[in-house]
Amino acid sequence: MNRVATVLAVLGALFIAYIGVSYLFAPQATAAGFGLPFIPSDNGFLQVKGVRDLASGLIIVALLATGQRRALGWTMLAMALIPFGDAALVLGHDGSAAMAYFVHGLTAVLVALTGALLLRTTHVRPANTSGALPHHDTASTS
Predict the structure, then answer these.
(1) Is 70 exceeded by the pLDDT of residue 37?
(2) Contact 115, 76 (CB under 8 A)
(3) Residue 89: which residues within 8 A CB-CB, separation 6 or more?
(4) How many Cα neighbours within 13 Å face the side chain of 92?
(5) What was the pLDDT predicted at 133?
(6) Of 45, 79, 122, 132, which residue is 20 to 30 A from 62 by alpha carbon distance?
(7) CA–CA separation, 103 vs 106, rounded Å?
């Protein structure tokens, strides 16, 4: 399960970073696949989404690279709100229901599943069963 969670996190990071780069360099073409019936003509507005998507991917990579699997699990659960919100916005603006459910909705489920798997496979420090009290450094307390 640990390896599955890691692979899903890496794929998610690569995917969202790719989407971000696509919005930066080909904003109109990329926006056409989002599912909304109207695409803003201002590339700057679309490129803002690109920066945020790229940063989202880098956050995942940074947490993976530093071994912060538990933090990554919680982050992925929170990040699942982004594609869920995207699906709701597409549906709320008479966009493509297929894009809303099968792209954004499925992405939300996969991101949440990845977060849950990461939390489930995070190793928790075993309980002290020796009966000894944990050592506390009294020199650093005042």
Answers:
(1) yes
(2) yes
(3) 36, 95
(4) 6
(5) 62
(6) 45
(7) 5
